[in-house]
Amino acid sequence: MDARTETDVAHVAAAIGDPSRAKVLLALAGGGVLPASALAAEAGVSNSTISGHLAKLLDARLLTVELDGRHRYYRLATTDVARALEQLALIARPLPVQSLKADTRAKALLRARLCYDHLAGRLGVAVMSALQEREILAAERTGRGGGATDTGAGATDVAYALTPHGREELTAFGVGTDRFPRRRASVRYCVDWAEQRHHLAGALGAALTARLFALEWIRHGKYRRVVHLTDAGRDGLATTFGVRVDQVV
After folding, report:
1. How many whole angstroms separate alpha carbon 42 and alpha carbon 3?
2. Per-residue b/e over 56-82, b at no fewer than 16 CB within 10 Å?
3. Bridge partners, 200 (sequence order)
4. Position 151 pLDDT exceeds 60
């Protein structure tokens, strides 16, 4: 293999591999921006220590920094970073739960959370399943890679496409499918680390999630990345897309 085509996986893995830096990345995995002081609190380190961790994450191109006057705000560099974190979680062992607060947060993350800018957890998987059942999305095996024996059980050789019927349905719902940025794939998926099934990502996943927030069918929770389904959302998702909301609770 031409050496110029290889990538420095070890450098990125080392940047992620420190527990404090992993906490920083996970705190930003919901797509938000945070100052260094907030990230220090998330990582459980001092303000002086966090600067070194942030420098390593910036060097590995996992974070970007935005300047606002004298203040600096950090975010994940790309949606692919959030996607990589989700994939790593598939093979990682669970952290021990050592407090009631940690247990409450863990259960909330399993129910519904943000994976950068799209829904994940049981809610995200339930929405993805409903979109297929309503033939808004069509799935087909690509013949590449291994995986499960069907498209709904974490297979990795699947491609999804928005159907003409689905385009009409989503446009009527207020998701403008003709305005997706060209630099980003319209329909992608992540294998949800908790459910071992697919949730919707890509520009469509982000647009649909933004619409659900705008309708107040979902809202941000107390903990970072956690999303709560509102009463209006329960009724709306069930009526509009046939989402089995009983699968979420």
Report:
1. 38
2. bbeebebbeeeeeeeeebbbbbebebb
3. 189
4. no
